[in-house]
Design goal:
Length: 377
């Protein structure tokens, strides 16, 4: 009996894109650390636009999914695609939920008033549901933030990632470039309409199961994911020197840009965010995909950043819950708390790397052999 795969297991990676995903993930952790000092005021937040990393991730995902699977549909069925995406993403979703459950009762206090009122059985039930990525309604909230995944908030973006993958497999993979362009243009208009003409002037949100938050979630998902897919199909990449450094600097500047326009002119910030998502993020991906790494050090850095990018994104937030509760409860000044926040960043990287090597890679390899390899006589 021989084992064969239904299609080639891997393609060559865009190494710079892997590295940029890691840069964005580290900036996300930094954004969440500093968020503890914003007093729930988005206008005062340092690394003010760090939340745009989610939109950047969606665009990267669309590009990578199209690159990896567009030419394989003659060799695989839809269920083969779904299994591959589940094997890639789901093990770390489960690990992030477990870490959230382990740290849950250490996060109680004024910031999360429901924690001390939550019985263990209910928390465990939420954990089991979290393993499945089924979103919870606000009525089942156990924290007080009305998150669809209250043990590990960033899992909301994985929920929408799964929806994008389903839409890709069912519908969008069949579109010509012309039809896909029309949909991407429509999604861009939806994004501009919400950010520029909407009530907040930003894309913050998407993590709750109610009409408003779901609207934000789909608005954030549809343009970047399918624009990334279109960018891959068009293939107009840009080759420049020092592509990784240039793109990393662009991400830092975009995320660190202070709030534009203030409360009186929120449309100005909405216009900025639309410009970043619609123009600058595709430009960064085109440069990153078109660039090459000339040194071993650059290759190693991008590989490391790429390897830890998803694990750090999906496991760091339980530590942020703990950190935020500590800062608010003890009124910790930034001058002191920032050093603890730096330690949190280091610990987050260490946890991500340990999860990658001790859990994620072995589990995915076992799942690959068990479910993705066909056995024939």
């Amino acid at each position: 009996m021989n084992n064969i795969s239904p299609q080639p297991e891997t393609k060559s990676h865009y190494e710079i894109l892997d590295g940029l995903r890691g840069v964005a993930a580290i900036l996300v952790v930094s954004f969440h650390v500093l968020e503890a000092y914003a007093n729930d005021n988005r206008f005062n937040q340092l690394i003010n636009h760090g939340y745009l990393a989610v939109d950047f991730f969606f665009l990267l995902s669309g590009f990578v999914v199209a690159y990896a699977y567009d030419d394989r549909w003659g060799k695989m069925m839809q269920w083969d695609f779904y299994k591959r995406r589940l094997v890639r993403l789901q093990p770390m979703v489960i690990m992030g939920t477990i870490i959230g459950a382990v740290l849950f009762y250490f996060q109680g206090g004024a910031v999360f008033p429901l924690i001390d009122q939550t019985p263990v059985w209910k928390m465990l039930l939420v954990m089991l549901v979290g393993f499945t990525m089924i979103p919870l309604t606000p009525g089942l909230d156990i924290r007080g933030w009305q998150e669809m995944h209250p043990l590990n908030g960033p899992a909301w973006s994985l929920f929408f990632e799964y929806i994008a993958n389903i839409l890709y497999a069912l519908i969008f993979r069949k579109f010509s470039k012309t039809v896909l362009t029309l949909f991407v243009a429509l999604f861009a208009l939806m994004l501009v309409r919400y950010t520029v003409m909407g009530p907040r002037g930003d894309v913050i949100g998407g993590w709750s199961v109610d009409a408003t938050q779901l609207n934000i979630g789909f608005t954030r998902l549809l343009y970047p994911f399918f624009a990334g897919m279109l960018l891959c199909r068009v293939g107009k990449l840009i080759s420049v020197k020092w592509a990784f450094a240039l793109c990393s600097l662009m991400l830092v500047i975009i995320f660190a840009m202070p709030r534009i326009g203030g409360p009186q002119h929120i449309w100005m910030n909405g216009l900025y965010e639309s410009f970043c998502i619609i123009i600058l993020f595709p430009l960064i991906v085109a440069i990153g995909a078109g660039g090459t790494l000339k040194t071993r050090a650059g290759i190693k850095v991008c590989k490391f950043f790429g390897n830890i990018s998803y694990p750090i994104y999906i496991t760091h937030y339980p530590l942020i819950y703990l950190y935020t509760s500590w800062v608010v409860k003890n009124k910790v000044p930034m001058a002191l708390g920032i050093w603890v926040g730096l330690g949190l960043l280091v610990v987050s990287v260490a946890i991500a790397y340990a999860c990658l090597k001790l859990y994620d890679e072995p589990v995915r390899e076992w799942l690959r052999k068990r479910y993705l390899v066909k056995r024939v006589l």
